[in-house]
Specification:
There is one protein chain. By secondary structure, the chain is α/β, with parallel strands linked by helices. It contains 13 helices and 14 strands. The strands form three sheets. The chain has a six-stranded parallel sheet, sandwiched between helices.
Amino acid sequence: MEDQTMADRLRAGIIGATGMVGQRFAVLLAEHPWFEVTVVAASKRSAGKTYREAVNGRWVMPVPVPDAVAGLTVLEGAAVEDVAGKVDLVFCAVDMPKDEVYQLEEAYAKTETPVISNNSAHRNTPDVPMVIPEINHSHSQLIEYQRKRLGTKSGFIAVKPNCSIQSYVPALHPLRGYGLKNVVVATYQAISGSGKTFETFPEITDNIIPYIPGEEEKSEREPLRIWGDVVDGKVVPAQSPVITSQCIRVPVSDGHLAAVFVEFDKKPAKSEILDIWNNYRSEQIVRDLPSAPERFLRYLEEPDRPQTRLDRDYENGMGVTVGRLREDLIFDYRFVCLSHNTLRGAAGGGVLSAEMLVSSGFIAAK
């Protein structure tokens, strides 16, 4: 795939293209070397408009609407056969009830269209891979089992995990050799995680909201699935660590920050942890992908870092920054980490997963 030219890119569709994550997909894919957006789809009320018209007054990206997609006519996302006939794969970021998302994504997969989903509907489906490419790309082997269940040859669904866990799971992952025993995490999550801006979320100004529906359960369960093993066509979640969490909405535009407390079976020295973080590299198959960060993890020595405004765009928003590692009075260690929630945690992670699945032979032109 490294030699693929702009002329023979795979045709990509964005389902839910007018929402915040859909807009982020549009920006990331506008000049992507492997993918060309040929379809933007949304709800019936946007169908028939040009993409520029459909997002007029609601465009929240820091750059203008890309010319590559601005003139495309928005299709109705529910028109599965129509959309599927024009694409080789779709990125799904719809705002719909979970049961409807579940049915919609399976319908696309059954048209032999790979679905890369930002939604949570299939995160607990046993044969659907939920992937952070630098950590568990091997879970993509589930696709073969899923295709047998769906009766497809090329169609399947792959999902990305919850955005908040992608701040702290990458920092914990390379330390698993010491036996992660207990983890306490508090996440301080940006308003874009709810698809909002300061203009559309006035109640967050000068305020903190200590509740995000469903987020704490995801934060405690999903890491164990990421660290699980594939057995007989399904993921058997890891048994440890025990994770307890609190998830808090804070008045920040982008960037999820996590305060982590960890207890090990075998406590490492602080120097060992820093050495592991500073030298952690994902496998070559991931490092060679167009959207992959050159350096996935970066430890910051300054006592007041990472900070959301200063560090969320590290590695174009695809890297994870860590800081403030110190011994704890109750647990073994505590530290703080940060990721960009709509890049690494959402659309960027989806694009990287799609690249990985192309490189692994799971996605090809129809």
